[in-house]
Amino acid sequence: MNTAFQVEAAEISDADLDNVSGGLSAGGSGGLSLETPLGSLCADLAAVASPEGLAAGVHTTAV
Hints:
Blueprint: H1 14-20, E1 26-36, E2 39-50, E3 53-62
Antiparallel strand pairs: 1-2, 2-3
């Protein structure tokens, strides 16, 4: 008895493949660090844009 799985090949269009793999998107990030004798400040920014919308995040730390 053969217990191997049966696999069938199927065609997929480029548009369908974009949807499966996450689609088209672009992103960027940046950071700033400032140190003084009185303390330090760190800030990070990240943003991603895709056909589904825009996502952005900001993180700051002060010591």
